[in-house]
Amino acid sequence: MLKSLKGLVRLPGRTRLLIDVSGSMDAPLSAQSEMTRMEAACGLAILAREVCDEVEVFTFSNDVVKVPPRRGFALRDAIINSQPHGSTFLGKAVTEIDRKGDRLIVFTDEQSHDKVSDPKGRGYMVNVASYRHGVGHGAWTRVDGFSEAVIAWIAASEETMH
Q1: CA dihedral (137, 143, 146, 152) positive or negative
Q2: Which helix (H) or strand (E) holds 50?
Q3: Could you tell me which residues are beta bridge partners of residue 57?
Q4: pTM of the prediction?
């Protein structure tokens, strides 16, 4: 998998990945899928980690936890085991880790127990679930659905802004 990423567009600058590990992320992507929302989010995080110039990975549920620098399936394991899969405090997590000048990419099912503020830099809310009405509004760029093309789309959309 990692070898297949060689030709992908890079995301320059600093990126913070924020992965939802709340209880709702243990649900299947859809009625027809065996893959969970968390597995989809981990897959996208593994991909994003490889194409970002500088990257830090965090998870959120009840708390915010910085994940050690891992690659591939070791990163998936670190994400899943980072903390108990409880409530969803996305707003608190964004407030705690978001920095001006950074890119913040959130992989979530867009449920939250608290208000989510606008990102300080470029913010992407990637909804891996099939909900229509999520929490990423305002200055957030919203992306619905699970596809490896999400990362390439982010890179292409930023290129057109320059």
Answers
A1: negative
A2: helix 37-51
A3: 17, 67
A4: 0.91
- Whole-angstrom Cα distance, residue 59 to residue 37? 14
pLDDT of residue 61: 97
Instruction: Kindly give the parts of the chain with pLDDT less than 70.
Output: 1-7, 130-138, 161-162
Query: Which residues make beta-bridge pairs with 68?
Result: none
Please say whether the beta carbons of 41 and 20 come within 8 A.
Answer: yes
**For residue 76, what are the CA distances in angstroms to 66, 69, 119, 162?**
13, 11, 25, 33
What Cα–Cα distance (Å) separates residue 151 from each residue in 31, 45, 70? 25, 10, 19
Of the candidates 130, 95, 99, 98, which has an alpha carbon nearest to the alpha carbon of residue 114?
A: 95
Residue closest to 96 by CA, chosen among 58, 55, 139: 58
Tell me what pLDDT residue 97 has: 96
